[in-house]
Amino acid sequence: MGMFIGSRNISLDVKDKSSDINFVSHAHSDHTSGVSATKETLSSDVTSELVAVRKGIKIKSLRSIEGARLLNAGHVLGSKQLYGVSDGGYSFVYSGDYQLQESLVAERIEITNADVLIIDSTYPYKDLEFEDKNDVITAIQHYLDMKIMKGTILFGAYALGKAQELIKIANEAGYTPLVSRKICAVNEVYNIHGAGLKYISESEGAEFTSEPSDTFIGIVEMNRFAETNALLSKSGKKVFTAVATGFANMFHMNTDVQFGLSDHADFGQATEYIDQCSPKVIYTYGNRRNQKEFAEALSSEGYNAHPYYESDYSIATEANALAAGPNMNAHKR
Ligand SMILES: [Zn+2]
Question: What is the distance in A from the centroid of ligand 1 to the CA of 236?
C-alpha cells in the first residue's frame, strides 16, 4: 500500500503491483526491489544512474509529479525523501533512509513540516547512540597513519555510500586507496556528480594479489572481504582488517578494528528530526519487527507513533481527523 497523490498510487521503495508510480529513495538494494524498466519511477537523477550501473535497469524516470517534491535525505549521494500533498489535503513526508549528521559525500538533509511522517526504522533502539561523525573520521585517519607502515589495511564496506565515504576519508588523510571493480562502478557516478574521489581501480592493473609490492589501503565490498583477506595474507605480510558500519555500535565484528561509521539516524537523530518536522502522526517504516519496536520506543517518549503495517486504510482518515483537531501534534502528547 502506497501513498496517493492526485489519485495516483505511489509505492515507497517496495515492489507493489497495484501502484501507478514507484518512488525510489536511493539505490541500495533493499530499496530497489520494485524497480522495473516499464513502470514510471520518481527518483533523483543520481539514483537512476546508480540503478542502471548496479542493476542494469534503465528506469522510466519521472523528474517530478504535481503535488510532490523530493528532499535530500543525507544518506548517500542522490538519496531523497518524498514530500507530497495527498488528495485528502494533508501533507506527508516519507523519509527513506536518512541521517542528520553531514556526510563527506552526500547532500545535507532537508527537513520540512508535514502532517504525516513515514519514517525509516533501520535503528529503532532507544539506547543506541552513534558517535559524532567527525570523531569517527579522526579515529579512522589516525588508524591509517598508525598502521600503514606496518602492513596493508583492508576495509570491508557497502559498495554504495560507505565505500565512497571511506575513500574520501582516506583522501583527506593523504592516501589513495585501491578499490574493487564493483565499488569503482559506483565511484564513477559519484565523480560525475562532483565527489572528487581519488582511488586506484582494481581493473587498472593493480590487483588484490598474494604478492603486493608494498603496503596499501584496500576497500572491497563485504562479500569479497574474507576471500581478499585470505589472498593478501598468503604473502606473509601483515594485513589489518577493518569494517566501518553503524552496526559496529551493536555487534562485535570478526576484524582487527571496527568503526561506528553510519549513514543512518540513531534514536536521538530520529527524535530531533521528528521535532523539526512536527507531524501530527508518525508511521514507522521498514521490516515488521523494526516498525513495531520503533513505534513502541517513540510512543514511550510521548510521540503519536504507529507501525506502518497498521495504517492500511487509516492514514488519510487519521491525519485528517488530527488536522481538524485542536493542537494535537505527534510531538509530546
Ligand atoms: Zn540505504
Answer: 37
Q: How far is the CA of 323 from the centre of ligand 1 (A)?
A: 31
- Cα 26 to middle of ligand 1, angstroms: 7
Q: Which residue type does 271 have?
A: T
Q: What is the mean pLDDT of residues 82-102?
A: 93
| Core vs surface per residue 64-92: b (16+ CB within 10 A) or e | ebeebbbbbbbbbbbbbbbbbbbeeebbb
pLDDT band at 3; cut points 50, 70, 90: confident
Q: By CB neighbour count within 10 A (0-12 exposed, 13-18 middle, 19+ buried), where does 320 fall?
A: middle
Q: Where are the domains of the chain?
A: 3-128+264-324, 133-259
d(CA 27, CA 61): 14
Q: Which CATH number fits domain 3-128+264-324: 3.30.70.1450, 3.30.70.360, 3.40.50.40, 3.60.15.10?
A: 3.60.15.10
Cα 288 to middle of ligand 1, angstroms:
17
Ligand 1 mean position, distance from CA 329 (Å): 29
Q: 3-class DSSP state for residue 147?
A: helix
The mean pLDDT value for 5-24 works out to 92
Average pLDDT, whole number, for the chain?
91
Q: How many A from CA of 30 to the centre of ligand 1?
A: 7
Query: Residue 235 C-alpha to ligand 1 middle, in angstroms?
Result: 36
Matching fold, domains 3-128+264-324 and 133-259: no
pLDDT per residue as tens digits for the range 115-124: 999 999 999 9
Q: What fold, for 133-259?
A: Rossmann fold (3.40.50)
For position 315, what pLDDT does the model report?
A: 56
Tell me how far the alpha carbon of residue 298 lies from the centroid of ligand 1, in angstroms: 22
